[in-house]
TrEMBL record:
Species: Spinacia oleracea (Spinach)
Enzyme superclass (EC): transferase
Residue ranges of coiled coil: none
SUPFAM superfamilies associated with the record: Malate synthase G
Keywords attached to this entry: Glyoxylate bypass, Glyoxysome, Peroxisome, Transferase, Tricarboxylic acid cycle
Pfam family, one: MS_C
Gene that produces this protein: LOC110805026
Annotated Malate synthase TIM barrel domain residues: 178-435
Protein name, as recorded: Malate synthase
Length: 575
């Protein structure tokens, strides 16, 4: 999907807004707002432009390397450990010690950078809140810029929110979680900001604006002299981690703070990255805050990596949990690698046997809620006993059962970095990490993929990136699993072997499933909502993605074109 200057984005109708004051070579095409203008100051944009100009070529090279690796996998090659970096994997080295402010990360809550969400998450009792510009956020101009305003106010300690419907005020408690921020991945552009005539790199915009406005206050109020802290998504190779390390070093130098002040946890959520964990930590060794098991995206990446391998058709996504050998091996190797290098090994979001998505409390069914909370506790008990130093929650209501699992097993220790080393995991092989998950494919699996994918995408187009569906929290990662799995089943006419009827997934069958699931969605959400929101557009995009000749790398790259609205600056001719 070409997102360069050749793509003609829609231009907003109506009178032209006031323009932002910008440095030379920078053009802001997003809607003008006086609060946004405080974020998009001339100096802040100059900082972002410096990052873009210095690292643009490195990012483009890394993306070309991704394409080359994809071509190799599509030709039958398998990912594996790199023989040229064996010395790094076998070497005796450690990363910088964790900052005292975030030594204890036993429970982390995640969510988009929405104002009420930020307050509730920081007040939740979690040790860390990961504020998300990535999979839990639809990256519209409004969402991104309001998110920057919200984070600035959160770091300053002034954030508040009044909910008119409930006449309720929200503000920060005295004790709050430590703030981590997740920018977008390297592959996503920011089409509302052009630098030297090209869309800026989305993650450099997210990182640059947040760092510029908040590094000093964060270090004083939250980081105890360290920070800011980040999560880094979608990394596939250590060269991409090296770019981030160089970005951090440049930012620290410009800000006049010590090298190693910035810390970042890398999500191991792509199959190629699991073979690069030592190398990723090595590149970030002065800035590392460990690794995290990004379970959902990892399954999506498994399907995407083997998209052209007919012998690696994955079963229904509801069957691909942490009990699968390749998932357990990935988790165990991550723990061993992190603790060997002296950093946190973070667990991921909960998998339930009913679906790969994040459980949230079930308010209208106490019995189902009690059962779900027990499953949360069991999953987290498995993580802490395996050696994870912390885990993720999608809702404040999940924090108590998580702590019930973690606290008795960790006691007063802030983490398990030096107490659980997992040396037996050193023997985990490429075969262990690549083993095909066991299970069957069913019509219900095809229907669930289709129903969830369309509903998530409809919400994403409307501006919501984290969507509660059927008492589970869906984000872009779970929609990606749905889309990629449907595509692969269609490509190879996969047999739905779990139904025992010999039915194969054909374009005709899929078209019927889409039609029937759209009818079901309309009945569930109601005709008024179905007509007024983006379900038909979402269905068109999702169906096109599932039936395309080639699998797009990311669903959101295509969908992004549908949410960009450019506002020309005063005096600029309309296209």
């Amino acid at each position: 999907m070409d997102l360069g200057t050749s793509y003609q984005y829609p231009v907003a109708p109506g009178p032209e807004a006031d323009g932002y004051e910008v440095p030379q070579g920078v053009d802001v095409r997003g809607r003008y707002d006086h609060e946004f203008a405080k974020i998009l100051s001339k100096d802040a944009l100059q900082f972002v432009a410096e990052l873009q100009r210095e690292f643009k070529s490195h990012v483009k090279y890394a993306m070309e390397c991704r394409k080359e690796a994809k071509a190799k996998y599509n030709s039958g090659a398998l990912p594996g450990f790199d023989p040229t970096t064996k010395k790094i994997r076998e070497g005796d080295w450690c990363c910088a010690a964790p900052p005292p402010a975030v030594a204890d990360r036993r429970v982390e809550i995640t969510g988009p950078v929405e104002r009420k969400m930020i307050i509730n998450a920081l007040n939740s009792g979690a040790k860390v809140f990961m504020a998300d510009f990535e999979d839990a956020l639809s990256p519209s101009w409004e969402n991104l810029m309001k998110g920057q305003v919200n984070l600035r106010d959160a770091v300053n300690g002034t954030i508040s929110f009044h909910e008119k419907a409930r006449n309720k005020d929200y503000k920060l408690n005295d004790q709050i979680a430590k703030l981590f921020v997740r920018p977008r991945g390297w592959h996503l552009p920011e089409a509302h900001i052009l630098i030297d005539g090209e869309p800026a790199t989305g993650c450099l915009v997210d990182f640059g604006l947040y760092f510029y406005h908040n590094f000093a206050n964060f270090r004083e109020k939250q980081g105890d002299g360290f920070g800011p802290f980040f999560y880094l998504p979608k990394i596939e190779h250590s060269r991409e981690a090296k770019i981030w390390n160089n970005v951090f070093e440049k930012a620290e130098k410009i800000a006049g703070i010590e090298n190693g002040s910035i810390r970042a946890t890398v999500l191991i959520e792509t199959l190629p990255a699991v073979f690069q964990m030592n190398e990723i930590l090595y590149e970030l060794r002065d800035h590392s805050a460990g690794l995290n098991c990004g379970r959902w995206d990892y399954i999506f990446s498994y399907i995407k990596t083997f998209q052209s391998h007919p012998d690696r058709l994955v079963p229904d996504r509801v069957q691909v949990g942490m009990s699968q050998h390749f998932m357990r091996s990935y988790s165990d190797l991550l723990i061993y690698t992190c603790h060997r290098r002296g950093v946190h090994a973070m667990g991921g979001m909960l998998f339930l046997f009913i679906e790969q998505a994040a459980q949230i409390p079930i308010r209208d069914n106490p019995q189902a809620n009690e059962k779900a909370m027990e499953l949360v506790k069991m999953d987290k008990l498995r993580e802490v006993k395996a050696g994870h130093d912390g885990t993720w929650a999608a809702h404040p209501g999940l924090i108590p059962p998580i702590l019930e699992a973690f606290n008795p097993n960790m006691g007063n220790a802030p983490n398990q970095i030096w107490s659980i080393t997992r040396p037996e995991a050193s023997s985990i092989s490429e075969e262990d990490l690549l083993q095909l998950p066991r299970g069957v494919r069913t019509m219900e699996g095809l229907r669930l993929n289709t129903r969830v994918g369309i509903q998530y995408l409809a919400a994403w187009l409307t501006g919501s990136g984290a969507v509660p569906l059927y008492n589970l929290m869906e984000d872009a990662a779970t929609a990606e699993i749905s889309r990629a799995q449907n595509w692969q089943w269609l490509k190879f006419r996969a047999e739905l072997d779990g139904d025992g009827l010999g039915v194969k997934v054909t374009p005709e069958l899929f078209a019927r499933v889409v039609e029937e699931e759209m009818d079901r969605i309309q009945k569930e959400v109601g005709s008024d909502k179905f007509k007024s929101e983006n379900y038909k557009e979402a269905c068109t995009i999702f169906t096109r993605q599932c039936t395309a000749t080639e699998l797009d790398d990311f669903l959101t790259l295509d969908a992004y074109n549908h949410i960009v609205i450019q506002h020309p600056k005063p005096g600029m001719p309309r296209l």
